[in-house]
């Protein structure tokens, strides 16, 4: 049986998330709300056969992964390549996360470098695992990972691999810029896993 599904989860809420702080590699634990939200996802995924759980080594991600792994009695495997996007030390721990992430001079790695390390992480998981695997990481890493799924480029042609399923719900929250907060949700979504 090959690797079937990657169930990608962002770490639960931390105090840094609440306050708009760029946490980077700092060890912020999950808040009470963050633990509650992750336990909800864990309960949903407890009905799914999970073969492995992988996580960024950053504490908030490992803490999230441990909650998700518990019902399956699995050990959490950490992969350095799943860690948060690398930013310059002078920006770590500072308020204004969204402003920081819109400043190209804040980063220690390019988008291409980030994409390569995520591709490498998925390659490691794909080579070792079968069935359904939970992957816990960070917002920017997950966004980059999903961008690689949404659009593929072959030669000079582009094609898109995401499409809305019949009777599915997608939600775009309109703020200063659009945020996709739900894509292709179906009420029997987990029944096929």
What does it look like?
This protein has 193 residues and is an alpha/beta fold. The chain has two domains: 151 residues, Rossmann fold; 31 residues, no CATH class. The protein contains six helices and eight strands; from the N terminus they run E-H-H-E-H-E-H-H-E-H-E-E-E-E. The strands form three sheets. A four-stranded parallel beta sheet has the order 1-4-2-3, with helices on both faces. A two-stranded antiparallel sheet has the order 5-6. The chain has a two-stranded antiparallel sheet with strand order 7-8. Helix 5 packs across helix 6. The longest helix has 18 residues. It is globular, with a radius of gyration of 17 Å. The two termini are 13 Å apart.
Compact description:
The protein contains six helices and eight strands.
Distinctive features:
alpha/beta; Rossmann fold; 2 domains; four-stranded parallel β-sheet
**Stretches with pLDDT under 50, minimum 5 residues:** none
What is the tally of beta strands? 8
Q: What's the SSE pattern?
A: EHHEHEHHEHEEEE
Structural class: alpha/beta
Distance from first to last alpha carbon: 13 Å
- In DSSP terms (H or I, runs of 4 or more residues), the helix count works out at 6
CATH class of the largest domain: Alpha Beta
Name the CATH superfamily classification of the largest domain: Phosphoglycerate mutase-like
- Measured by DSSP, the beta-strand proportion falls in 15-25%
Integer average pLDDT: 85
Q: In the CATH scheme, what's the topology name of the largest domain?
A: Rossmann fold
How many domains, as an integer? 2
Largest sheet: 4 strands, parallel
Strand order of the largest sheet: 1-4-2-3
CATH hierarchy: architecture of the largest domain:
3-Layer(aba) Sandwich
- The amount of helix comes to 25-40%
Q: Compute the gyration radius: what is it?
A: 17 Å
Shape: globular
């Amino acid at each position: 049986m090959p690797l079937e599904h990657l169930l990608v989860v962002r770490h639960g809420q931390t105090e840094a998330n609440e306050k708009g702080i760029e946490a980077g590699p700092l060890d912020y634990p999950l808040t009470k709300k963050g633990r509650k939200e992750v336990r909800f996802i864990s309960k949903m995924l407890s009905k799914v056969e999970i073969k492995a759980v992988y996580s960024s080594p950053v504490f908030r991600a490992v803490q999230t992964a441990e909650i998700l792994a518990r019902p399956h009695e699995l050990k959490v495997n950490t992969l350095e390549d799943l860690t948060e996007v690398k930013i310059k030390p002078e920006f770590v721990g500072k308020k204004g996360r969204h402003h920081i992430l819109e400043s190209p001079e804040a980063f220690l790695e390019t988008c291409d470098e980030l994409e390569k390390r995520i591709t490498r992480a998925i390659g490691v998981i794909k080579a070792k695992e079968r069935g359904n695997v939970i992957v816990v990481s960070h917002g920017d890493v997950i966004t980059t990972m999903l961008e690689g799924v949404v659009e593929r480029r072959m030669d000079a042609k582009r094609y898109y691999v995401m499409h809305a399923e019949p009777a599915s719900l997608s939600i775009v929250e309109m703020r200063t810029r659009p945020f996709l907060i739900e894509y292709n949700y179906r009420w029997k979504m987990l029944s096929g896993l």
